[in-house]
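Continued from yesterday's entry.
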Amino acid sequence: MKLYNYFRSSASFRVRIALNLKGLAYEQVSVHLTRGGGEQLAESFRALNADQLVPVLEDDGHLLTQSLAIIEYLEETHPQPPLLPRDPVERAYVRSLALTIACEIHPLNNLRVLRYLVRDLGVSDEKKDGWYRHWVERGLAAIEARLLAECRQGLYLLGDDVTLADVLLVPQIFNAQRYTCRVDHVPVLMGIFDRCMQLPAFIDAQPSKQPDSE
């Protein structure tokens, strides 16, 4: 397997965690998102992914894009240990938490969105960072409220087993901390984050551990 990714990309971070949890060996190819205007914008990378986004997973001659699709592919091809529970209701719950992060929080704070705010709309860096903090803090608060209402969490977001939802949560918290977002309003999430970051699969996937880390 070959993973085209960037050390700070939260979507790439998710896939690295999943690969580690599955115990799968993979080669990393760095696609630097800021150097030279962004290596993801080069024609050579566009041939791999027309969206010009990381990550891209190459496996057995197949090119896979979109982090959640990649992780579900890994789940189907390497089902142990499982990242989705067997019960359909619990499976939907885990997917719902994961999609809240992937679809409701992350897209508003993706690098290309932040660049557009500054370069095309003339938003100041201060206001751009305020935009980031607003949507991340609001999104995390919504997940926290759901956990408190449904009480399905244990050591992790669903009981005591790591699931897809935890794989999505950790990179989002990393980004929140990087942009100095408030996290004191989500103590349950932070407890789960801290427990995840005691596991080798999460530790080894974090940005500072990657070969292209700056």
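--- second protein ---
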Amino acid sequence: MHSPLDAFEIGAGTSAWGDTRAWRYGRVYRDADLRAAFDAAIASGVRFFDTAEIYGFGRSESLLGRFVAESGQAVSIATKFFPYPWRLATSQLLAALRASLARLGADRVALYQIHWPIGPRSPGFWMEPLAAAVAEGLVLEVGVSNYSAPQMRTAFERLAARGVRLASNQVEYSLLRRGVESNGVLDACRELNVKLIAYRPLATGVLSGKYTPDVPPPGVRRLRFRGPLLSDLGPLVRLLHEIGRANGNRTGNQVALNWLICQGALPIPGAISAAQASENAGAAGWRLRPADVAALREASSRFATRHRSLPPAPT
């Protein structure tokens, strides 16, 4: 069974939209920068945009909705429900969804997701109102985010009992964070025909090669990527650029994103400038050779062997 998500090779993430904290992102940007990023993504063929009610405390949804309305373009929007501890009733999901739709200026969204499997309610608790959202025509499909393989299977079964398909699981996945390959999530997605949506697919920009021990990344990323870790990234980054040159002068970032596409994932790299959005979109429409995919996997594994304790990115 095919999903509407299968129509997209790459999307755009908007977690930074509406959140202008320079300490986090290392730079200050304006709404005009985001509009330019949106326009560049649209011009490059991107039609899938992912947001959430907690991104910029709703401002990401508002900006995206405004940009879509002003552009007149038909796009598919995914957003998310955050299960705050004080959200205990199923009715709160539908209320939050309607609030998201109001900010987006939309009658429905293509995909609605549970953002995290956190308590006090069980991860499966929210499947009933998700199914109700489909029945009411407020969403086309439903998914989860950051769910483990067992949690995803539970969600799949509870939705199926209500005649609704689990469309996606959005998780962190990149050449530097390949846990989904060993923890059962990627295998479960393939078995159940659930699309794996990959966030932070460029490891928050570190795979670009523009950072070194002498020039660490700005903002909060400096705490995660520094010193020997950046030095040891050298071979992988050089390979990304080498493969890119052999594949029509693609950039290293485009190669890293295409590697995820080759795994069957839908990467949603973020962009806060037109240049970033255009470059990201250039990862679609072509495929790495199997030998390139294998070489990148091997280089990534060598790095992982030296840095198994790489901490997760800050949320």
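The CA atoms of residues 168 and 175 lie 20 Å apart. The chain is about 40% helix and 10% strand. Will compare against the first tomorrow.
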